[in-house]
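Chapter summary example: a protein plus adenosine-5'-diphosphate.
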Amino acid sequence: MGDLAHAVSQPVVVAPSIVVRDLTAAYGRAVALRGISFTCAPGSVTAIIGPSGCGKSTLLRCMNRLHESTAGATMDGQLHIGGEDIHDDHINPIALRRRVGMMFQRPTPFPTLSIFDNVAAGVRAAGRPSDTVQSIVERALQRAGLWAEVRDQLHGSALALSGGQQQRLCMARALAVEPSVLLLDEPTTSLDPVGTQRIEELLYELRGSMTVVLVTHNMQQAARVADSTVFLLNGALVEQAPSRLLFTTPSDPRTEAYVTGRFG
Ligand code: ADP
């Protein structure tokens, strides 16, 4: 990492716990989550698994209050991050989303911005002093494992990068504003094995410094990177357990049927 990056003090981020209690979410009359409760330990990686349509994305979107921006969507129950109810009146959803970063299945770089500006945009919007932006961008690209590949083309188009590089660029963009929580919705589905491995290594490295919630279709991935795994079925939580237990000795027969590939 460059000396400049070391010289800039970053805000001290303390990874928070996430506590979900009796969370229900619906789109109009269609219920997507049915009173689910679970906890993510501070600095842990929690995987959310389950068949398509079981409510995984809805759950992530509740965690940064994106769900409420869908017309007709409703939510009930409690969601505390770092002990704070994220639906309290004084919480500004935009400020919340700086603390609770999100990455999607397909890379979503800003198409008209350069590699540098893709990462810098959020940093500037967060009001960081302009003389620190360069070093924050460099550090974020370093953390996302992309710096060495793009350092000579920082002002080139983000769209010239490969899919895996674009996804790491989105990771750098998310990391640049120093979130304490990172939500990932199937972040490696569109990547090749090398790109997937890079993201998995990064998640491993982020453990401890932020609390990560990872939606994945890939059970091997959940077993590799997640401390704890939550299994959802038809909007209900069937089981949460340390990943090594959930994939080897699940306590619910439905979990066993799913992880052994009998449905899904
Ligand atoms: P998963 O991520 O596990 O595939 P989702 O959270 O996307 O599941 O979806 C849960 C349920 O909510 C599904 O029945 C889905 O059809 C429904 N759903 C998701 N998004 C919307 C939406 N914008 N409007 C209406 N129903 C939706």
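Key point: The radius of gyration is 18 Å.
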